[in-house]
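pinging the channel bc i need a second pair of eyes. not urgent but kinda urgent?? the chain im working w is below, pasted from the shared doc
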Amino acid sequence: MTASLMLNVWASLGSVLIAVAIGLYVHYSKHPLLNDIKIKPWEYSAITLFLVFGLNLVITTVGYNMAVTHQTTFNEFLSGAELQPVITVYGCHESDSQGGSTGGCTHTYDVDSYTVQVWHPEVSHMEQDADGKGSHKVVDSPGHYETETRWRQRPYTTTETTWTVPTTLGDYVVGENWLPENPQAHRLMPEWGQDRNDALDTSLSSGTPDAWTAANNRVQAGTPGPVAKEGTYLNYIIPSVNTRLRAYSSDIARFQKSGLIPELGHNVYGYYYVDGAYFEGVNVANKGDWQFKLAKLNAMLGTDLQGRLYVVVVNANTVSEHETTAYIRALTAYWQSPKFGKDAVSKNAIIVALGTKDGTTIDWSDASTGMPRGNEALLYDLAHNLTGAKLDPTALFGDLTLVTSHTGKGGYTISAANNNGAVAAILFGPDKFQRVHMGMYSYLKGDVALTGGEITLILVVNFIFSLIAWAAIALWAVPAYQDWQAGRSSGRSFRS
């Protein structure tokens, strides 16, 4: 029985039981609100059928679709590049009133108190008369004015600045409402005796953010840096109960025991950097250079081909060339396992394992993608054309000089000079990467295994809405219908 069929069975049975149970309570209850309501058997049956095949069916369908969407939504990283950084300067001034405009400046303190008269409306309630035949109003507090003290807000400095790095993936604010350099020299009110708070808050940021300066220097030099941003996509394969299409390996524990399978990282640092290179049992010089040059390659790869490259450098003295297939399968299966939840390696991932014995030369390579099929020729090239290459980030990824171009449709393309790395040449070569669309696996939506909690939630919502519907029908619709029927009957009797 598929997950969707199982849900429909449980939800249908639950809906029937809910509708019937609430209806029986309405019919037989001695509650004062329901005591005078008599629902005829055929009315009771019609209402129950309406709830089961109308309201409850809609709730079940909507709940099922929402649950499937939640189960099949996963995180992925989009890649892009920096654009020209910008600054926004705010001219600060004291507010005219409490909470008024300060020119866009946010770092303030209270000065210049003033009073206002604030109207408070009457507060009253109704009480029953002593004879029990009526009620009267009792005033708890009559309407009146009260005097309130308020304060104007004065910014610390004459200006505040927001520092922004636009990118092909959107804008990143790397410094919001920073005070100017040497803020004491830029006090809005230099006469210290007039200030209630003489001391300037030293925890406030001032000057120019280092991240903005670095990005501006790169862009001005014509070498914009790479950017990564988290997005979402649909994956029907990972949550499906159809295990034939999911990556699987019985060697995960064996390689983990030897410390050869890295944990998949998902941390964004420096506002928009994400590491994509891993080193297991191998020491390499300047790991930061590896990460930055790989990120630049991913900027072009992600923008133009919608792919993302992960590279794992592993000790070939421990993983021999005869175990490369077993290793890449174990690595891929682990990164797509439930341990990583929504952060499992995405379907657009290109995973390349590089084995080295001496830390300077590639002895073997193998590759996989986040999809069960597609890009077979590319994977063959990555597995057979890197042996003997120099184990160096520039030799593998190139030292790309990114060039951004506006498409005129709100998007960007990214090209690069120095695109002569061995891996880069394969990714953009005759067998270049092609993102496989998840639509060809949409039939797996029916095999998504919903949790017991999701099914329970659907039934609870069914119960609540059925209860509300029965209350409305029993207290209003049925009496109104019965009165209408009685009126029709009386009219027919009179005319006859």
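so Residues 246-439 form a domain with the Diaminopimelate Epimerase; Chain A, domain 1 fold (CATH 3.10.310). and DSSP finds ten helices and 15 strands in the chain. — does that match what u expected or am i reading it wrong
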